[in-house]
Amino acid sequence: MPDTMLALVLHLEDVLIVGAALFAIGLYIALSKRNAIGVLMGVELMLNAVNVTLLAFARFVESDQPLDGHVFAVFVITVAAAEAAVALALAVAIYKHRETVNIDELDLLRW
Amino acid sequence: MIEDNGIVIAFWILAATTIACALMTAAVRELVQAVLFLALTFVGAAGMYIVLSADFVAVVQILIYAGAVSVLMTFAVMLTPAADRKNSETAFQMPALMLAGLILAVLVFVSLDTDWPIDADRTAFSATAASLGEAFLKPYVVPFEVASVLLMTAMIGAIVLTREEDGDA
Q: Which fold has domain B1-87?
């Protein structure tokens, strides 16, 4: 192959940094948003970032059973789906009583 | 390492799209728009899974995240009509920004500083669905069943939480 040809390489670190960026954005959303549904969106984004990282490790790192990372990613997706269902049901239930889902107005447990 | 030019370019386009959509999720002022950008983020992440040759997980991602979770979130927004639809921030915005920046810096440092045990000869996986099914029903059968119970508990919990109280059923 001549030297002038473009030879791009994707390293594990590149994918890890993309995953870290997604995780940081998700963390910012989860910690800063006023609406409970917005907070949940941040949590889902963080779980997605973790999946990107898991699949990157499965693809690049040496292992006897490289598909274990995929298994773990599927479990993460399962738990995330359960968590989304319960959390959104909670948001709707709270809305029925309080007419709001803003987390800074839901301070019933604050001392 | 992935050395195919097309795949590497595809990864960076997908990564840029995903991160841009994630930033838009944080930045837009309408909650419904934020949900739509989040759905795009999920699709972009599914594209990255395909680049990492995780075909089954990518399809699951499209089905569950881009399909079900996005619709669920849209429903939750629509079912809370009198609530504030602004995608606004609490007083914790600046601490959250600083903490997220700090976490990002630490994660990037750890990613670059660690000497990962890279398998240089690893090629892309061929179709993973069959081997994943085998993994779920042989070594991972107990976690698999626990996940089933968890999903059913979550489903019952969601129904109990949202049903009308005055019904005598």
A: Four Helix Bundle (Hemerythrin (Met), subunit A) (1.20.120)
Instruction: Between A74 and A103, name the one with better pLDDT.
Output: A74
Among all residues of chain A, which has the CA nearest to that of B34?
A38
Angstrom distance (rounded) from CA B167 to CA A14: 55
Q: Looking at the domain that runs over A12-98, which CATH code has it been given?
A: 1.10.287.3510
- The predicted-structure confidence for A39-80, as pLDDT tens digits, reads as follows 999 999 999 999 999 999 999 998 888 889 999 999 999 999
List the single residue in B9, B57, B93 with the smallest CB-CB distance to A8: B9
Query: A61 and B99 in contact by Cβ < 8 A?
Result: no
What are the backbone angles phi and psi of residue B4, rounded to the nearest 5°? -80, 120
Residues of A in contact with B70 (CB under 8 A): none
What type of residue is A94? I
